[in-house]
């Protein structure tokens, strides 16, 4: 197998700079600085104080074209006496599949009611509840600073009727109707920003990607949205993510949809019962999550990246989103479940904006636009911006600056950048780049060789393979970095309650321990100087496993290694065999670069 590795050689001083202005690294042509509390914020801009109180209207009913009723909560700025504040105000909208009322309950336990009491007993635990509530669109941050907030339960979830299927294309038609309704809210400007974590960010991207030009959505701020559900979760690295799928199916897919109608509609028992029945039927729907995952695991039609999964891929709407020129600020994480998907979304938006085919990497010398940005840090899926070993990032303030720019016409400078990719490493270094992959990194093909070698010399043999024996403990243990990542950072969420980092995240998968663990590694020659590595998985080989390339230490004498934990291939019949072949593949070349038009 050919792995395209991008080697960016940094001066030692560039990786150990003190906090302060960005310093250009002459070797790599990159700006490198140290992370601090203002990372990501426009120079000289601050979020300002809270100015308003919060009023709330529950369960607005929005009737879809087929008669299904969706429900949304509206939260709006108020004066000190509780009356609606003088507007008009723009709208921040979150579309959730996890129930607005269960999320609202977390807000009650953190911000309101029991929150102040619990805050004295276990402040870090309350902070975790607040973070989860905020990420689901139920925080107070935006409303208190002059925004109307709308939280919509998607079809078949929360208090909304109908049947749910993960990222069902029907959701996009529903979203159009719901966005039109929201744009007509009293005391609003009619301009909408979409915000949310994970599925909530995915639904926002998909909705914006099918809108007509000039629609009400003027900005997006999706956190950890990924790119393609099949590649990023179901069959990531060639392995089914059993840990995540099992947790997802029983809790947010099955349990929450039955709890939420009770929380949201208990005062309307007839409507509550109707919604509960709809949600139960979702579990036996042909395109529902349960039967779809069972189909995938049993080698049915959902086991392949066919029409079902392609119709749910964010990648397929990005050209339309770029054509509509809807400014989008993405948040991604090094330890995210969707780790490689979000950067692919960033490069696709930049490519589409520039008139290039959106698949594949950006050319190294490409110009880029500040209308599409990515902030990528050492974060797990459920807690972006949070990292005990470095400075926490104020993502609320960054989102506010983004929405202020595009919804309030505040030219605060957040879009005025030539380096819209901002990457924070685990040591707190901030690397700025105009492209993904990093344009200053010279590209090199590395080939798998015999005897565990990873070399730039193309093998002379026309065929060959290694066999990796799969076992359930191929990663060594469920307490390791891979499992923590694939479990969506749940360990980190629980550890954060006690103000510590996930201890399992520091434990890397173990090497060969025959016959218990078969985990071979392919290794380069020792480096002679400090070297940073990046990997881009090209869409031309998108159906292949992602190459896991790591570096043991960023110092001379260590090697890059290709870890075969997770690198499996399907047989011609698509079954998941006990032994896996790692095949050599032909080099398909790079995408040709094109001149970037000015916009």
End-to-end Cα distance: 39 Å
**Strand pairing plus helix content: what structural class?**
alpha/beta
Over the alpha carbons, how many angstroms does the gyration radius reach? 24 Å
> How much helical structure, as a percent, in the residues?
25-40%
> What percent strand?
15-25%
Largest sheet: 12 strands, mixed
Q: Which of globular, elongated, flat, extended, rod-shaped describes the shape? A: globular
Uncertain runs: 1-27, 537-599
Q: How are strands sequenced across the largest beta sheet?
A: 2-3-13-12-11-10-9-8-6-7-5-4
Overall number of strands:
21
Figure out the total of helices. Answer: 15
**Arithmetic mean of pLDDT:** 78
Any overview of this molecule?
By secondary structure, this protein is of the alpha/beta class. The protein contains 15 helices and 21 strands. It has helices spanning 100-110, 115-121, 123-135, 170-183, 199-208, 229-234, 242-265, 269-282, 289-297, 307-310, 318-323, 341-353, 395-407, 481-486, 490-496; strands spanning 2-9, 23-25, 30-34, 53-63, 69-78, 89-96, 148-153, 188-197, 217-223, 328-335, 372-380, 421-424, 429-433, 443-448, 454-455, 465-469, 521-523, 531-535, 549-551, 560-563, 579-583. The strands form four sheets. A twelve-stranded mixed β-sheet has the order 2-3-13-12-11-10-9-8-6-7-5-4, with helices on both faces. A four-stranded antiparallel β-sheet has the order 15-14-1-18, with no helix packed on it. Strand 2 and strand 3 (30-34) form a beta hairpin. Helix 1 (100-110) packs antiparallel against helix 3 and helix 7 packs antiparallel against helix 8. It is globular, with a radius of gyration of 24 Å. It starts with a strand and ends in a 16-residue tail after the last strand. The model is unreliable at 1-27 and 537-599 (pLDDT under 50).
């Amino acid at each position: 197998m050919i792995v395209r590795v991008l080697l960016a050689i940094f001066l030692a001083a560039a990786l150990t700079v003190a906090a302060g202005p960005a310093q250009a690294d002459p070797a790599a042509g990159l700006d490198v600085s140290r992370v601090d509390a203002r990372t990501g914020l426009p120079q000289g801009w601050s979020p300002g104080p809270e100015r308003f109180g919060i009023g709330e209207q529950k369960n607005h009913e929005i009737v879809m074209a087929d008669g299904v009723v969706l429900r949304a909560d509206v939260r709006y700025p108020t004066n000190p006496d509780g009356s609606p504040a003088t507007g008009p105000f723009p709208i921040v909208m979150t579309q959730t599949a996890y129930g607005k009322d269960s999320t609202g309950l977390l807000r009650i336990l953190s911000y309101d009611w029991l929150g102040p009491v619990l805050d004295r007993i276990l402040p870090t635990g309350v902070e975790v509840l607040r973070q989860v509530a905020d990420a689901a669109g139920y925080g107070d941050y935006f409303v208190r600073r002059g925004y109307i907030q709308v939280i919509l339960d998607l079809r078949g979830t929360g208090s909304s009727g109908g049947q749910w299927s993960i990222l069902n294309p029907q959701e996009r038609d529903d979203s159009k109707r719901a966005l039109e309704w929201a744009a007509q809210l009293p005391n609003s400007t009619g301009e909408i920003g979409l915000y949310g974590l994970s599925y909530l960010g995915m639904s926002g991207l998909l909705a914006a990607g099918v809108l007509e030009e000039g629609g009400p959505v003027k900005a997006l701020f999706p956190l950890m949205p990924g790119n393609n559900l099949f590649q990023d979760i179901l069959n990531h690295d060639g392995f089914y993510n059993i840990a995540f799928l099992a947790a997802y199916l029983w809790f947010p897919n099955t349990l929450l949809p039955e709890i939420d109608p009770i929380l949201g509609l208990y005062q309307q028992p007839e409507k509550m019962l109707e919604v509960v029945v709809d949600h139960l039927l979702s579990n036996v729907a042909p395109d529902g999550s349960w039967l779809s995952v069972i189909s995938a695991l049993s080698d049915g039609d959902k086991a392949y990246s066919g029409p079902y999964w392609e119709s749910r891929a964010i990648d397929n709407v990005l050209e339309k989103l770029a054509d509509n020129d809807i400014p989008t600020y993405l948040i991604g994480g090094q330890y995210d479940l969707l780790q490689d998907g979000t950067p692919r979304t960033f490069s696709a938006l930049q490519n589409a904006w520039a008139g290039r085919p959106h698949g594949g990497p950006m050319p190294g010398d490409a110009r880029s636009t500040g209308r599409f940005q990515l902030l990528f840090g050492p974060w797990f899926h459920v807690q972006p911006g949070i990292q005990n070993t470095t400075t926490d990032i104020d993502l609320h303030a960054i989102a506010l600056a983004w929405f202020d720019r595009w919804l309030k016409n505040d030219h605060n400078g957040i879009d005025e950048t030539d380096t819209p990719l901002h990457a924070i490493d685990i040591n707190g270094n901030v690397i700025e780049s105009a492209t993904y992959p990093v344009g200053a990194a010279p590209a090199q093909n590395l080939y798998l060789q015999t005897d565990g070698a990873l070399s730039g010399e193309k093998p002379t043999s026309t065929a060959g393979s290694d066999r990796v024996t799969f076992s359930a403990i191929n990663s060594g243990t469920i307490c390791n970095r891979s499992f923590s990542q694939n479990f969506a950072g749940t360990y980190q969420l629980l550890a954060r309650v006690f103000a510590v980092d996930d201890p399992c995240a520091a434990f890397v998968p173990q090497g060969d321990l025959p016959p218990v663990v078969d985990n071979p590694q392919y290794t380069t020659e020792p480096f002679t100087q400090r070297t940073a590595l990046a990997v881009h998985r090209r869409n031309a080989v998108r159906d292949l496993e992602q190459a896991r390339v790591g570096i043991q230490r960023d110092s001379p004498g260590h090697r890059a290694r290709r870890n075969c934990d997770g690198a499996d291939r399907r047989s011609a019949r698509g079954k998941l065999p006990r032994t896996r072949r790692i095949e050599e593949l032909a080099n398909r070349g790079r995408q040709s670069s094109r001149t970037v038009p000015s916009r």
